[in-house]
Design goal:
Elements (H helix, E strand, L loop, with lengths): L1 H25 L2 E13 L8 H14 L6 E4 L8 H13 L2 E3 L12 H18 L7 E2 L10 H13 L3 E2 L4 E2 L3 H12 L3 H30 L5 E8 L2 H14 L2 E3 L2 H4 L19 H8 L12 H6 L3
Parallel strand pairs: 1-2, 1-7, 1-8, 2-3, 4-5, 6-7
Helix pairs in contact: 2-3, 2-8, 4-5, 6-7, 7-8, 7-10
């Protein structure tokens, strides 16, 4: 009898260890980092260049062995801007580029035809910059995919005929908010405020990484591969090492955009007109009328007021 009990105990222990091991192996969720608004989002501190900022970010990505990171370009920012052109040249020599529309046009404020022209106006720069023809990815400016279903369908059909894939987003903590604030605080040499920017950024990042995973489970019944939206700006090279540590600590494995979006979740289309609906997951939450789990909000007011 005692032997039998011992055997059962041993078997269940093996089962527990095996299950835990397996769940540990499976919990590394895939995540692709993407960067918008190249050559640069927001303001820079005085004396800091776009090229220098880009070089610093590229060095971190290389040192951390981050798989290729798509940078989404608005070529209008290059007009009369040699620093911007140099920054973009540096980026494209190291990482892939994609289309973010020439003038960062808002599809909610414009008809599909004008939006399509803005996409095409961006193409010569991408053609010149990209080492291969892998630039046929569109990241919608403001993540606005169309405030009417007709617009949404028209642009999607157009993208398909031109060989574009939509670079979706599942994770977003509006990191751009910190770019301008950091530029102001760095100009004032305000170390206390910069320390607060770091901690508030990492708190928001942590909360919204968790929220994205919860959203995926509510929508799909399981977690999915994720695509994270960041913006290349003044704060990026300062905070990126800690952001990468956090992403790793949360159990994510960094992959390419192609690999992340090979998940079947990215084949779905909410196919409705939506106003400022946010990420693909936010869109589905709205369409399926799923209640948001409790989560921390971003400190909009404090960020806007700091170092003014
Ligand atoms: Zn943008």
């Amino acid at each position: 009898m005692q032997n039998l009990l011992r055997f059962i105990c041993w078997k269940s222990c093996v089962l527990v260890v095996f299950t835990l091991g397996l769940s540990g192996m499976c919990s590394a969720q895939k995540l692709a980092i993407t960067m918008d608004d190249l050559p640069l989002n927001g303001m820079l501190p005085p004396g800091v260049t776009r090229a220098e900022t880009t070089k610093n970010v590229l060095a971190i990505l290389k040192e951390r062995h981050v798989p290729p990171v798509y940078g989404f370009v608005n070529a209008k920012k290059l007009e009369g801007n040699a620093d911007g052109a140099e920054a973009l040249r540096l980026w494209a020599a190291a990482e892939p580029v994609g289309n973010h529309a020439y003038s960062h046009m808002d599809l909610e404020l414009n008809p599909p035809e004008a939006f399509q022209r803005d996409i095409e106006e961006n193409e010569p720069a991408l053609e010149l910059l990209a080492a291969t023809d892998n630039w046929h990815w569109l990241r919608y400016p403001y993540l606005h995919e169309g405030d009417t279903v007709e617009k949404r369908r028209a642009v999607r059909a157009y993208l398909k005929t031109r060989g574009y894939r939509i670079a979706q987003v599942s994770l977003d903590w509006e990191d751009y908010l910190w770019n301008g604030a950091y530029a102001r605080c760095a100009a004032k040499n305000d170390a206390t405020s910069i320390a607060w920017l770091r901690s508030s950024y990492l708190n928001a990042a942590s909360a919204f990484l968790d929220l994205g995973r919860q959203q995926a489970k509510l929508i799909y019944g399981h977690d999915i591969n994720h695509v994270l939206l960041l913006h290349l700006g003044a704060f990026s090279s300062t905070i990126l090492p800690e952001a990468l540590d956090l992403i790793k600590k949360k159990g994510f494995k960094l992959v390419t955009l192609e690999e992340a979006q090979s998940d079947a979740a990215y084949e779905g289309d909410p196919d409705v007109g939506l106003h400022d609906a946010g990420t693909l997951l936010d869109q589905w939450m709205q369409v399926k009328q799923i209640k948001y789990p409790e989560h921390a909000e971003k400190p909009y007011k404090e960020i806007a007021a700091i170092c003014q």
